[in-house]
């Protein structure tokens, strides 16, 4: 149910629609002289047509087409009717597509931006490809928008436009593409435009392979050549390179979140709160510039006098031609263990604003909740209330010789046959339950043993050190740590450092620098690593020593 509500929330904020009708454009950024397509869809088979009189006052109406589709899913019958309207802006600047009435429905307005044409843009023959990015340099993992345009002024019968291929980079297509017309040097061209999001995984120079189009030109095909498939044509884009910067030094070892926008919010179930009864805390994280798989986990840490049971997070990604938007929502069941005031500490998530080039923080403020004693809540007893009954009981103790027996005693023996039968039945059922439980546990233990991961020993860590293999050292060190210290499970090297001595902390910091900065030429300090691993370098520092560093001084 939580997942459904999240999806509905995302749909509401991301669509330009009212109930029953939607209005979308194939592009929001348009160059003067280019066409774009407005699509209006209604989820009913209505006879009314869109009222375009207000639209014609702002844009040139070039043509309208109409289509309808019918779907039958599990016996449910639905009809959708659509209109595709080809438009051309009249001037430069920000324009608004006004609300359009279709029968009883009304669309929402849509904002678009019209920019001047590039005076340096030139025609390059009958067919050519242009590629461009929204920035010339970026950080590792930062979103880069790639725009690919295929221009052609010939009649193409078929063709294939290749996808971007870039090593050490995640490539995600943002839209299905837009088709429109434009004019270059007095010549009309049809344009196919596509957008991609690029996320570099390694710093250095990003080199993109050329985009290639292969197709057939039927412009000069003669009417009697009915079996002709046209002349082969080919277009290749210019090479494209970008500079990818490493993660800033002060952000190494933390969750690195380069984005244009980050928001975090929370919701609580209504009071009253009682000891032993779960409280649901719902946290929603919204990020523009990363996909759902790149959003870090929401780790709130421990809370005093509270047990925390997180549910599986729900995630969602939305793609537009301009960016990637992602949501992550997690529900936490908080169970108070003590009555009174419980303080929920502040939570903050560090992120890098790629628009301002500054570190910022998304925060949840601290909250203090009042918890009542539940049915099974334990209150501190008064000492006198425990001691007084004991004294009273002691004064009432008498010896057997002092007890007065009644003159006559009547003994009634009840018939216990039914009770004996019920007892026997319950005993048999209990035995059957025990046997089934024993078999289930045996099977579970057998499956656990079969799936048990390989044991990592210090020999693996030492081997990685001797081979100067930083990646293997990280992998073996994390695996060894998690199987050695079950109460201190970790997912990255930075989580290990607080539990180790200063020498090991320095070695791990150098290892992180070597792993996350490919420009670093440093190698493992093998002698110091071997000394620490063979010695007591991987032994836990006592927790009270760590805790002592973060304790606040006494008030009095």
Describe this structure in words.
The protein has 556 residues and is α+β, with helices and mostly antiparallel strands. The chain folds into 4 domains: 16-115, Immunoglobulin-like (Sandwich), CATH 2.60.40; 127-246, Immunoglobulin-like; 259-372, Immunoglobulin-like, CATH 2.60.40; 458-550, no CATH class. Helix content is 21%, strand content 37%. The strands form 9 sheets. A 5-stranded antiparallel sheet has the order 1-2-4-6-5, with no helix packed on it. Strands 11, 13, 15, 16 and 17 form a 5-stranded antiparallel sheet that branches. The model is unreliable at 1-19, 376-414 and 544-556 (pLDDT under 50).
How would the blueprint of this fold be written?
Layout: H1 2-14, E1 17-18, E2 21-25, E3 29-31, E4 36-42, E5 59-73, E6 76-89, E7 93-97, E8 101-102, E9 105-106, E10 110-115, E11 127-133, E12 137-139, E13 143-152, E14 156-161, E15 169-173, E16 178-184, E17 187-200, E18 204-208, E19 212-217, E20 231-236, E21 240-245, E22 258-259, E23 261-268, E24 273-274, E25 279-288, E26 306-310, E27 314-319, E28 324-336, E29 340-344, E30 347-353, E31 358-364, E32 367-372, H2 383-395, H3 417-451, H4 458-466, H5 470-484, H6 502-516, H7 526-534, H8 543-550
Parallel strand pairs: 3-10, 12-21, 22-30, 24-32
Antiparallel strand pairs: 1-2, 2-4, 4-6, 5-6, 7-10, 8-9, 11-13, 13-17, 14-19, 15-17, 16-17, 18-21, 19-20, 23-25, 25-28, 26-28, 27-28, 29-32, 30-31
Helix pairs in contact: 4-5, 4-7
């Amino acid at each position: 149910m939580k997942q459904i509500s999240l999806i509905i929330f995302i749909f509401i904020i991301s669509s330009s629609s009212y109930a029953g009708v939607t209005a979308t454009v194939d592009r929001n950024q348009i160059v003067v002289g280019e066409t774009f397509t407005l699509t209006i869809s209604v989820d009913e088979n209505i006879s009314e047509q869109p009222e375009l009189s207000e639209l014609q006052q702002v844009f040139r109406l070039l043509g309208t087409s109409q289509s309808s589709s019918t779907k039958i899913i599990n016996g449910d019958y639905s009809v959708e009717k659509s209109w595709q309207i080809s438009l051309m802006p009249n001037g430069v600047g920000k324009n608004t597509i006004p609300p359009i009435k279709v029968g009883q429905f009304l669309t929402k307005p849509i904002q678009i931006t019209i920019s001047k044409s590039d005076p340096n843009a030139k025609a390059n023959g009958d067919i050519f490809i242009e590629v461009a990015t929204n920035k010339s340099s970026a950080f590792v993992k930062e979103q880069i928008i790639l725009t690919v345009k295929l221009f052609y002024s010939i009649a193409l019968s078929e063709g294939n436009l290749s996808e971007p291929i870039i090593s050490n980079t995640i490539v995600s297509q943002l839209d299905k593409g837009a088709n429109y017309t434009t004019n270059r040097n007095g010549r009309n061209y049809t344009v196919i435009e596509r957008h991609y999001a690029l996320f570099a995984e390694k710093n250095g120079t990003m080199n993109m392979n050329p985009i290639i189009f292969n197709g057939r030109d039927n412009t000069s095909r003669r009417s009697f050549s009915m079996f002709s498939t046209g002349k082969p044509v080919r277009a290749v884009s210019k090479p494209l390179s970008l500079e990818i910067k490493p993660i800033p030094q002060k952000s190494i070892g933390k969750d690195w979140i380069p984005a244009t926008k980050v928001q975090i919010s929370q919701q609580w179930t209504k009071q009253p709160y009682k000891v032993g009864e779960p409280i649901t805390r719902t946290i929603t994280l919204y990020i523009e510039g990363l996909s759902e798989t790149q959003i870090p986990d929401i780790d709130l840490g421990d809370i005093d006098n509270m047990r925390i049971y997180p549910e599986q997070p729900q995630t969602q990604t939305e793609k537009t031609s301009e960016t990637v938007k992602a949501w992550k929502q997690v529900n936490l069941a908080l169970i108070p263990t003590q009555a009174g005031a419980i303080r929920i500490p502040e939570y903050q998530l560090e992120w890098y604003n790629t628009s301002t080039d500054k570190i910022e923080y998304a925060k949840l403020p601290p909250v203090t909740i009042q918890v009542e004693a539940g049915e099974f809540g334990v209150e501190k007893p008064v000492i006198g209330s425990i001691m007084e009954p004991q004294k009273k009981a002691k004064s009432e103790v008498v010896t057997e010789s002092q007890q007065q027996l009644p003159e006559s005693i009547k003994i009634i023996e009840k018939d216990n046959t039914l009770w004996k039968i019920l007892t026997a039945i319950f005993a048999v059922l209990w035995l059957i339950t025990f046997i089934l439980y024993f078999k289930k546990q045996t099977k579970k233990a057998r499956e656990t043993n079969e799936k048990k991961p390989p044991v990592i020993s210090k020999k693996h860590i030492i081997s990685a050190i001797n081979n100067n293999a930083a990646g293997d050292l990280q992998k073996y060190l994390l695996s060894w740590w998690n199987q050695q210290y079950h109460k201190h499970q970790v997912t990255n090297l930075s989580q290990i450092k607080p539990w180790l001595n200063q020498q090991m902390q320095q070695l791990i910091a150098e290892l992180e620098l070597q792993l996350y900065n490919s420009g670093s030429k440093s190698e493992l300090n093998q002698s110091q690593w071997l000394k620490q691993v063979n010695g007591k370098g991987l032994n836990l520092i006592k927790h009270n020593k760590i805790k002592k560093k973060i304790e606040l001084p006494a008030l009095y």
